[in-house]
Write a structure and sequence with these properties.
There is one protein chain. This protein has 162 residues and is of the alpha/beta class. The chain has one domain: NAD(P)-binding Rossmann-like Domain (Rossmann fold), CATH 3.40.50. Helix content is 48%, strand content 14%. The protein has a five-stranded parallel sheet with strand order 3-2-1-4-5, with helices on both faces. The longest helix has 32 residues. It is globular. The two termini are 27 Å apart. The relative contact order is 0.15. The structure holds nicotinamide-adenine-dinucleotide. Nicotinamide-adenine-dinucleotide binds next to helix 2.
Length: 162
């Protein structure tokens, strides 16, 4: 295996564009911060408007190129709108981070149907829709990439998701 070239990863990430769900706090904000520091342009998406504004303010102070869009990613139309906003601002997405997730705060066995639908919407369907919605424009951009480029650089998800 060839020796790692110092700075190589940073060079590859610079000027790439990322879309991150659940980016206003926790792991999503951590990823947004790290990518922003590496020169990636980051679109932060979150359901929490105030937390999102605070996160954007903090990242802009570091000179990161970031934008934000509010969306409930469990609702396909809202996720699609967030994708449209991202493509309108940055043109394409290289790195998709389907990070938003919710946990159950009531004991297992006591959830009703709306509770199941909400959790499955955020934790499962939003991931599937993210790939579906961002897939077509990125398939188009893959065709334009040089052959030496990696095949799926945009596809990522939270640490526990396939
Ligand atoms: N923290 C852990 O130890 C851990 C462990 C395993 C998996 N995970 C997963 O990693 C991801 C991030 O975890 P975290 O600890 O940073 O969580 P967190 O609760 O700190 O942050 C989640 C973010 O997602 C946002 N969000 C929630 N529902 C949303 C929706 N419908 N639409 C848009 N945004 C929404 C929240 O507002 C919040 O900003 C989650 O998917 C979580 O399930 C976390």
């Amino acid at each position: 295996m060839p020796a790692a070239i110092p700075g190589e990863a940073m060079k590859e990430l610079a000027d790439k564009i990322a879309f991150i769900t659940g980016a206003a706090s926790g792991i999503g904000l951590g990823i947004a911060t790290a990518l922003g520091q590496a020169g990636v342009k980051v679109m932060l998406c979150d359901i929490e408007e105030v937390a999102l504004a605070t996160a954007l303010e903090g990242l802009k102070r570091t000179n990161a190129d970031v934008g934000g869009v509010t969306a409930d990613v469990s609702l396909k139309d809202e996720l699609r709108h967030a994708a449209d906003e991202t493509l309108a601002r940055y043109g394409k997405v290289h790195i998709l981070v389907n990070n938003a997730g919710v946990t159950g705060r009531v004991p297992y066995g006591t959830w009703n149907d709306p509770a199941w639908n909400w959790r499955l919407g955020v934790n499962l369907m939003a991931v599937i829709w993210g790939i579906e919605i961002f897939g077509p424009p990125n398939r188009a951009s893959r065709r334009r990439r040089p052959e030496s480029s990696p095949p799926h650089p945009w596809l990522a998800s939270s640490p526990c998701r396939a």
